[in-house]
Structure formats: structure tokens, C-alpha cells
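REVIEWER CHECKLIST
Item 1: Sequence provided? yes
Item 2: Single chain? yes
Item 3: Sequence as submitted:
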Amino acid sequence: MSEVNPSARRYNSLRRKEQASATRDAVLAAARELFVRDGYRSTTVNAIARRAGVAVDTVYAAIGRKPDLLREVVESAISGTGQAVPAEQRDYVLRLREAKTAREKITIYAHALAVIQPRLAPVYVALRDAAGTDHGCAELWEQISDRRAANMRKFIADLSLTGELRTDRPSAELADAVWSMNGPEYWVLLVDQRGWTPEQFAGWLTDAWCRLLLADGGG
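Item 4: Structure as written out by the authors:
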């Protein structure tokens, strides 16, 4: 009996991985669309499977139950990929850490938010609404909110290393102020409801945070 060609085995393995990745992406895209359009409570796993063009068992195998789907939709919206990416490994965070001045760091982060929020804000709002009636969603909402607050403390600590951060207010207070303004709700208010452009939003955050956080008022 002839042996299986190693190259053919590697090809088949790669093909299976690509197919699994494509299926996962399709399921996440369907879940995102339905969660945003219909809300978490009204969206069923059956509906997600139909929208993605796969069997229900495939949804469970690819990602999991409905709470798992919502978590993965939120995480992929934050990272811009098909899976969660730790903050320290995101491209804009790496560039922010390498920047030399506080204004450069703030500018990088503000413009990164203008790229992230169009995909994150609708999902985040859907999660917020679901948190009011679903215990699991409420836990996820709290976890992500707390994680964002912790990341803002790191952001303020990074700004302080430049020697430009104001010292007349507690650093935790400054972190909370940034946390309140980088939330998707702030984006929804200014961009979705008031018609600001993403560029205008990024410019506003840069100017506001420089004035608010830096000892020289950003001058």
C-alpha cells in the first residue's frame, strides 16, 4: 500500500484550516448583523446559522452558544480580526508605545479610535441593551468595561513617562476621563447623532485630550 504524499497531507490540512476560518468568519458576520439589527434577545442560533448558510451544529462547533457568539463578535469588532487580540499586541498600541511625545501618543490613539468605532459601536450598543435583561450579557458588559478602564490607566501611565502629563489631578481621575470619552457611546452621540466625520471626531479627541491631560494644556 502506497504512503500518503506528505505534500498532499499538508495541503489538505491547510485547506481544512482555511475552510474552518471561512466558516467562522461567516458565522461571526451573520451574528453581528442580526445582533445589531434585531437585538440579542430576538436573535436565535438558528437564525444565525441560516444567515451564515451553515448547519446549527456547525455554529456550535465553530464558536459555541449564543453568549459565546456575542463575546466573539464584540472581541472581533475591537481587534478588527476574527478573534480577540490582547491590547498590548495591537498595531496602534505598539506605535503608541514607541512614540516619543505625549501629543504623538494621543494623536495615534485618537485616530485609532476613529477606525475602531465604526465597527465596534453598533455591537457595543447591542451588548449594552442586552445587558439590561440578560445576566450573561451584563457580565460581559462589565468585564469589557473594566478591561477598557484598566487599559486607560496604562495609557495614562505611558503618557506620564514623557514628563508632560499634568500632576494637579490624580492619574486615576485622568484615566477615567479618557475612559468616558473613548466609549462607543461618545462616538454614537457625535458621529451617528450629530453627523461628525471620523476625521472630525479624531481631531476633536486629540485636541480635547491634549488640553485636558497635558501640563501645558497641549500648547
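Item 5: Key structural point noted by reviewer: The longest helix spans residues 6-38.
Item 6: Recommendation: ____
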